[in-house]
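## Example pair
The file below holds two records. Each record gives the amino-acid sequence first, followed by its structure token line.
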Amino acid sequence: MIDLHVHTSFSDSKHTPAHMLHLAKLAGYRAIAFTDHADASNMRHILENMLPMARTYSLHEGIDLFVGVELTHVPPALIPDCIREARELGAQIVGVHGQTLSDVVEEGTNLAAIEGGADILCHPGLITEQEAVLAAEKGVLLELSTRPSNALCNGYLVNIARRTQAKLVINNDAHESKDFIPRDKRRAIAIGAGMTPDEYRAAEENSREFIARLLRPS
């Protein structure tokens, strides 16, 4: 199992990075990505402190660990520049906090994240069909969330992705131990959102392919 959306005490989890890594391992996850909430004020701090830790701790825990950010409440006009800056600072994955129904996110955030070339648009809410088409063209992954507050549009998202061929990934948006859900529950949430078994397997394969690209020598 893979979770490409994990938070630590660098944002709104109470657990340190090492603790979250250990919890993921205990839950049977083989790879995770730390993607703490970030903007221009804290992005450098997160990445400069997290990246060296990831290189050593993942070896000792026996789980692949990657470090990035989830750009959150960044004004849409600034999102493309923030994505570029995150990559320049070494972020291995760049997500953007999409227009989930559980939060008040500025209109235009989903489109700016896709146009700016984010890796993952997290919990995109009522993403438009045009935006999903663009995500498919640009290879931006759309997140189906197992987190109840962000899962309100999962069924809608499955249908949009099916029509547009946009690629989905399944993430937990993990903040604590209970968020690292077991495989059978991940599958049940996906099927409950309307995925076919083949679509569920494809979504999980999308995560594996993303990790494989990160592991490929540059």
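Second record, same layout:
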Amino acid sequence: MAAVLAGALLLAGCGGGDDSAEKAAPKGPLPDIECAESGQVRGSGSTAQQNAMKRWMEQYQLACEGVQLVYNPLGSGAGVAQFQRGATTFGGTDEALSAEDVEMTKDVCRGGRAIDLPMAGGPIAIGYHVPGVTNLILDAATLARIFDARITRWNHPSIQRLNPDAKLPDLPVVPVHRADDSGTTQNLNAYLKGAAGDHWPYEASKKWQGRGGQSASGSDAVSTSVTQTEGAIGYFELSFAAKRKIDTVRIATGASEPVAPSTSSASVGIAEAEIAGKGNDLALRFDYKTSAEGAYPIVLVTYEIVCETGNQPESLPALKSFLTYTSSEEGQEQLHSIHYAPLPESVAAQVREVVSTLS
């Protein structure tokens, strides 16, 4: 129910709302949201979810203008660090908290601890810029060697084997990776480690593990580098590939057909995951070796980090209201149109139940 109609929205780093009193009235019905009357909810972190967060905030503001929302897309590592310092109400990350991360939240979450709430899913697209080459197919082992600078020309036999009809140029391969600590990087590292075996001898870390290549901070900058560099290949969320019209790799998984990144194929991949967290922590574990038909294997889920108990009382009602909306059926339905994959309803329902118990 749209209970409150006054206030402002801030989208730090993503573009801001228009506070003008002459702003045109929204068209169509207001979103169906149980609004908090007031409060400020500050978040920061994952760049992977910044486009989803922007949409959610815009929709929430239509009904709940008395609440001020701020999200600064600094990257997952910074999002966790800011939350641990008490600078934000929630953190956004593409990797569930480690035991050490949780321990460092106990001073902020007075009498409790932080928990992970999955909120938006999607594929990590592998985008490339190779003139004359479309519908490129790669597998985990070949991707691992490309990103580790062991395949250095686009006409390498391993790439040609997977693309027998393609006219691959004798062009240098330019891998582009994230310079900042990133949950997107962690999820790609985890996929390569899980699916490529000995071809990727590195840990599933937020820090880039492969050798060589170029670097850029944030998914936006990585995708820009790919568009500007012939021979480049990089990784970022599908929304960035769609925004810049970047060709994306289809992944050979052992299924009958290579799988392209899409919201639907990512949802199939996410549905293969299981909840690995304990109690109210809803961290997920993925099957990176899945060969299920239509399942895109390089997926991430962005988590909102919140205190299970010990949240700031002045922001708690607004936090619960906002996260109840983002995990609702209406909030999740917003994701398809902006290239994210909604959570399976079984997971979203658990998120809403946990949000209702935050204190």
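Notes on the second record: The two ends are 22 Å apart (CA to CA). The mean pLDDT is 89.
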